[in-house]
Design goal:
- An eleven-stranded mixed barrel has the order 1-2-3-4-5-6-7-8-9-10-11.
- The model is unreliable at 1-19 (pLDDT under 50).
- It is 6% helix and 71% strand.
- The two termini are 19 Å apart.
- It has a single domain, classed as Porin.
- The chain has helices at 2-8, 16-22, and strands at 25-38, 40-51, 56-71, 74-84, 89-103, 107-120, 125-139, 143-156, 159-174, 179-191, 196-214.
- The relative contact order is 0.20.
- With 225 residues, the chain is mainly beta.
- It is built from two helices and eleven strands.
């Protein structure tokens, strides 16, 4: 399904000139703190997102989430995000599920389904649904190579449709059981309603695991886009 969406989206772009004019390079930075005990994991994540080729702060956000793993193949995760933009503040409760499996001890495959409800401080709201697939490969004691692809569907009073599609890859270096640093790059098609544009996203994320006493190995989500 993800492959079909990625192939179909470029065909909907209105013109190449409009795509080039509006396209931007983004920089996402993230610091995530995680605490795990038995079947539960708790997260706090703070992000800064710069656009205009990394020259302008578009938004910063704080997200709190919890994950419950009833089995080794399933994670259930509610979350709440507050995003601060120059002209407004957005509040976003959400809930999702992740299906996951480990193959051969070093490969992990995961698929996330997530619903979110966005509320703006200046009025208005919208709903969204995303589907994101992850593949992670552990190499040695310190490295994890990852690939990710997903799409986001938005609906509101005056419009509904696929808002963006993104694919990318990254690498995580685990300094120790507590600290890990991820660097990833994504290419995405974004729907501006009248035409599509292509954006690039560099994501740099630090994870601090205060406690890792989990019952089941968690899904390795390399970035929250």
């Amino acid at each position: 399904m993800l492959v079909l969406v990625v192939i179909a989206v470029p065909a909907t772009a209105r013109t190449q000139s409009a795509d080039t004019l509006d396209s931007k390079q983004w920089l996402f930075t993230s610091t995530k703190v995680a605490y795990a005990v038995n079947k539960w994991r708790f997260f706090g994540d703070m992000q800064f997102r710069l656009n205009e080729n990394w020259r302008e702060l578009d938004q910063w956000l704080v997200e709190l989430s919890a994950t419950y793993s009833p089995t080794s193949y399933l994670e259930l995760s509610p979350d709440f995000r507050v995003t601060v933009r120059p002209s407004r503040i957005e509040y976003r409760p959400g809930a999702g599920a992740i299906l996951k499996t480990i193959v051969g001890g070093t490969w992990q495959f995961a698929l996330q389904h997530k619903y979110q409800f966005d509320i703006s401080s200046v009025g208005g709201s919208s709903d969204g649904l995303r589907q994101v697939g992850f593949v992670n490969k552990v190499v040695g004691d310190h490295l994890i190579f990852s690939a990710i692809g997903g799409w986001f569907y938005r609906w509101r009073d005056n419009w509904n449709g696929v808002e963006f599609v993104r694919v990318g890859a990254g690498v995580t270096y685990r300094f120790n059981v507590v600290h890990g640093l991820n660097v990833s790059y994504f290419v995405g098609k974004t729907n501006l309603v009248d035409h599509w544009i292509t954006d690039g996203f560099l994501a740099i994320g630090l994870t601090i695991n205060i406690r890792t006493d989990w019952t089941y190995v968690p899904a390795g989500r390399i970035v929250n886009f």
